[in-house]
Design brief:
This protein is an alpha+beta fold. It has helices at 2-29, 68-75, 163-172; strands at 44-52, 58-60, 63-64, 78-80, 85-88, 93-98, 103-111, 118-123, 128-130, 137-141, 147-154, 157-161, 174-178, 181-188, 191-197. It contains three helices and 15 strands. Strand 8 and strand 9 form a beta hairpin. The longest helix is centred in the N-terminal third of the chain and has 28 residues, at 2-29.
């Protein structure tokens, strides 16, 4: 039993050391903006017990990370690789669990209207993104009906819009003729993002 406890404690110290090293690398790499994680290609070093929950909260070893500044720091070295989400530094990358997507879009600002409409979003961690050709939106149909809206933030990382924002953007959407079919769509930054066929949404549209 003592050997098991010793091994568990050593594993915990090793994991804590990795988390601290990642935080240090994020601080160093982000002194002049976001760290250039897309240019780093270190070896994969397995998974770390870190999870981003559905509601956007971050957890480490089963416990919520209560320091917003630390969560923000970890988020700056988050990357989406083809196989998994990873925290990456110049010397290592470790996998983490993400229940849906890493961010929540919690605020929206609208400039212009009609074809010239531009929608700007702010995430729960302070990232800002503007929906358009470089930052597309997508809408996923849910099994129980309705749609989940997402917007690209950076490097393949997305934010899911809160329910309140979803209702706001639906109010801004209009029926458009897309390839001969009436579709409920949303415009932003010169791009058109299809939400759903208008026929699915009833006569209100």
């Amino acid at each position: 039993m003592s050997g098991e406890r010793t091994g568990s404690a050593a594993h915990g110290r090793d994991a804590a050391g990795k988390a601290a090293a990642i935080a240090d690398a994020a601080r160093a790499g982000g002194k002049r903006g976001l760290p250039p994680v897309e240019r780093w290609n270190p070896p994969y070093c397995g998974e770390i017990d870190m999870r981003i929950a559905w509601d956007g909260s971050w957890h480490y070893q089963g416990t919520p990370i209560g320091r917003p500044a630390l969560v923000r720091l970890f988020s700056t070295v988050l990357r989406k690789d083809p196989e998994r989400y990873v925290l990456v530094t110049p010397v290592e990358r470790v996998g983490i669990a993400v229940e849906d997507v890493p961010f929540l879009a919690v605020e929206m600002r609208r400039d212009g209207e009609g074809a010239g409409q531009v929608l700007h979003f702010t995430t729960n961690l302070g990232d800002e993104t503007t929906a358009g050709p470089e930052h597309p939106m997508r809408f996923v149909r849910e099994a129980q009906g309705g749609y989940r809206p997402y917007v690209h933030v950076r490097g393949g990382l997305e934010a899911r819009l809160t329910r309140a924002l979803y209702l706001e953007i639906v109010a801004l959407a209009e029926v458009e003729d897309i390839a001969g079919e009436a579709m409920l769509a949303l415009r932003s930054g010169g791009a058109v993002f299809v939400i759903a066929p208008a026929a699915e949404l009833g006569e209100a549209w």
